[in-house]
Specification:
The chain has 13 helices and 13 strands. It has a seven-stranded parallel sheet, sandwiched between helices. Bound molecules: nicotinamide-adenine-dinucleotide (NAD).
């Protein structure tokens, strides 16, 4: 642990980042913008680079209120000349640029290759040549485990990804590991599970099913839960994910190391839909058969064993699921127009029964 840092409650203090230069790739996206916001609070000199490609989660509103305090480059991380300039002098780099849709990676595998692998190689090459002493933190994913052999899943679990996105995220992890081993770079990799919270993409299910559910429940539309809804998942509130990323950055013992980040224990998707509807004060959901293209890449039950990050970095989950969902719904009630075309909602409202916020829960709720 560096002497600039003394995390006692699982949160990195101001001393760690104040006055430090930090680059966030994907910094206009969901997790990246939350990292950027925290870094600004901690007094860091923040530079973000993000391509703002429409299918991804980048959104200028994600940096509303801090846009004058950060340096924003709307550009692609695959631009090696640009990255060579941008990495120079940085103390930390959080690499969050990427493509997150699993189904999207099956439909457009070369796009996924570019967003997850080419970006990573471009960044690592820039660091190797122009800033080999920077500390890198990479946002990897639990998707690389594929269908778990045993639960909960720890970092020693076999890796057998079942979609193109999982393969590319695994390759990106290995690029980092090889550059650490052979070129002496210093990187930590966090295998995130479903992360949720303010600034996630909710206009569709490209980022996560939960994003679309949030929009649907707020619009009074029916949520569709695939299969029997008994699939168990764990979810991390984004502030807790940011804690984990920052702790990994300031910890000097984790060069090339890998950590699972879990959540508030497993919950099955049917119960998650019921909880969301209850917190919203109304709504409905329906179990529907798995679309075949989703079934083919579904990992079934997953929840993480995250003892390692708790023991080694002092991370802990602070935001229970209910509290996180309350905060998330409140954010999108106030900011909906920045995340989806609310005129569509008006059209829908004019043609269907309006949502009754005080309605009794649907019969499917417990
Ligand atoms: N959200 C989750 O639940 C979750 C779970 C596990 C892992 N992750 C990982 O965390 C990272 C961030 O995910 P997110 O949920 O914030 O997604 P996001 O789509 O909101 O953010 C990714 C950002 O990267 C940007 N980007 C993509 N390609 C780029 C390029 N070539 N150059 C510059 N910018 C580019 C996008 O414009 C977007 O703003 C991803 O690598 C993802 O795999 C996310």
């Amino acid at each position: 642990m560096t002497d600039r840092v003394a995390p006692t409650d699982g949160t990195v203090g101001r001393a760690a980042f104040s006055g430090r230069k930090v680059l966030v790739t994907g910094g206009l996206g969901f997790i990246g913008s939350n990292v950027a916001r925290r870094l600004v609070e901690l007094g860091a000199d923040v530079l973000v680079v993000d391509s703002l490609k429409p299918d991804y989660g980048g959104n200028l509103h994600n940096v509303a209120g801090i846009q004058d305090q950060i340096d924003i480059h709307v550009a692609t991380v695959t631009d090696q000349a640009l990255m060579s300039r941008l990495v120079e002098g940085q103390h930390y780099i959080f690499h969050l640029a990427g493509q997150v849709s699993h189904l999207g990676s099956m439909q457009k595998p070369f796009e996924d290759l570019e967003a997850n692998c080419q970006t990573t190689l471009s960044l690592l090459e820039a660091c190797r040549k122009h800033n080999p002493h920077v500390k890198l933190v990479y946002a990897s994913t639990r998707q690389i485990y594929g269908v778990p052999d045993v639960l909960p899943v720890d970092e020693r679990h076999a890796l057998h990804p079942l979609d193109v996105n999982g393969i590319h995220k695994l390759a990106a992890e290995w690029y980092h590991r090889v550059y650490c081993r052979t070129h002496g770079l210093c990187a930590a990799m966090l295998r995130l599970t479903n992360t949720y919270g303010p600034r996630m993409r909710v206009k569709d299910a490209r980022q996560t099913f939960l994003g679309l559910w949030i929009r649907q429940v707020l619009e009074g539309r029916e949520i569709q839960v695939y299969g029997d809804g008994n699939q168990r998942r764990d979810l991390t509130y984004v502030d807790d994910a940011v804690d984990a990323l920052l702790l990994a950055a300031v910890n000097e013992t984790c060069a090339g190391d890998i950590f699972n980040v879990g959540g508030d224990g497993p919950i099955c998707l049917r119960e998650l839909a019921e909880l969301l509807i209850a917190i919203n004060g109304g709504g409905r959901y329906r179990l529907v058969p798995f679309p075949p293209e989703h079934r083919a890449i579904d990992i079934g039950d997953y929840y993480a064993d995250d003892q390692k990050i708790r023991a080694q970095l002092g991370w802990r989950m602070k935001t229970p699921l209910r509290e996180g969902l309350v905060k998330t719904l409140a954010y999108y009630r106030a900011n909906d127009r920045h995340y989806w075309d609310t005129s569509q909602e008006l059209v829908a409202a004019a043609t269907t029964t309006p949502p009754d916020r005080s309605a009794t829960p649907s019969p499917l709720q417990s």
